[in-house]
Amino acid sequence: MTSLKSLAEHLGLSQATVSRALNNYSTVNAETRERVLRAAREMEYRPNASARRLATGKAGAYGMILTTEGTPMLDPQFSDFMAGLTEALAGKERDVVLGGSPNERSTATYERFIRACKVDGFVITRPLLGDSRAELLERLGVPFVLHGRTAPEPDHAYYDIDNFGAFQRATELLMQLGHRKIALLNGRVDAMFAIMRRDGFLAGVNGLARAQTPISETPMTEQEGFRCMRAALETGVTAAICSSIHLALGAERAIHDAGLALGRDMSLICHDDDLSGLSTVSFSAPLTVTRAPIRDAGRAIAGMLEQLCDGADRASQQIIAPVELILRASTRPPITP
Question: Are 265 and 337 in contact (CB under 8 A)?
């Protein structure tokens, strides 16, 4: 492997000059920098990670702290998000360092990573209202990007989707089909995405009585989907909207257990992250969905972290991505008695 010393000798320059050129120091003129970079490519020079950290003051890595509640590594949302993130960072020779935390409000692991200079910034997934993790990193001046938001208009860098608009359009579709008893199976009430989806749903039902529009706010699991759909069916709903494919899987099971047919007796819409391991067309009736591929979020956040660590203003790194509404066989007008 080519060393910094041999690269410098080949160019007839000092090791210090070559190092500064490789690390984009402004004290090196453009002609010399290009000459050094060209030679580094030709000689397949790869800088030593420890040496690069000392030279630049950067770790060349970003942190993600996972909760030890449940099994996040088996979550298809996590794996698809990570696929997009690592794919984008690999081309920039950046790594992702994972850590564990007992819950989403604990900041101890973030503080440990910062003290050890393990990473240059963080991705915060599943942010909460008044998120203590974001508050800590903000106070310490550490770059971070939220996958989601901590408020409708947070003063942080974030990548989110149009949760309000997506669920308003989905609800309006059901209303246009003639449904007046519609359930919402939503995520936890302390998550901003769930709040925005609930508000979009309520805007879509346009003042229908709460008894006609039961709302559940729970962990987004198949078990909760089954339980909440079974309870909603007892109120006489003819349609439901689920915040995740896992909730929809449980909802479909409850619909079948009640002797009903999906797409005939019950209409169902779910949010689809376009997961590689779970398809919304494989249900007994292909699902109408609001779709926003979660891999796109991972790719975008990788670029946003790079921009922040290069000094970009966080206000320039705020994205609300559009959500597609795809009509399929799971939605139709309600059956009239």
Answer: no
Half-sphere exposure of 118 (CA within 13 A, CB side): 17
Dihedral sign for Cα atoms in the order 320, 132, 198, 77: positive
Residue 33 belongs to what domain range? Answer: 4-56
Judged against a pLDDT cut of 50, whether residue 54 lies above it is answered with no
The residue whose two tokens read 């709040």 is 195
Number of helical (H) and strand (E) elements in the chain, helices listed first: 12, 12
User: Is there a single domain that holds both residue 200 and residue 260?
Assistant: yes
Between 18-22, 250-254, 313-317, the lowest mean confidence (pLDDT) is in 18-22
On whether both 249 and 313 belong to a single domain, the answer is no
Residue with tokens 């939605």, as numbered in its chain: 331
68 shares a domain with 35? no
What letter represents residue 235's amino acid?
T
155 and 173 assigned to the same domain: no
Give the separation between CA 203 and CA 261, rounded to whole angstroms: 28
Q: What angle do CA 257, 260, 264 make, to 5 degrees?
A: 150
Instruction: Enumerate residues 6+ apart whose C-beta is below 8 A from 3.
Output: none
> Quick one: 172 and 139 in the same domain?
no
pLDDT at 102: 87
> Any idea how long the chain is?
337
Return the pLDDT at 69.
67
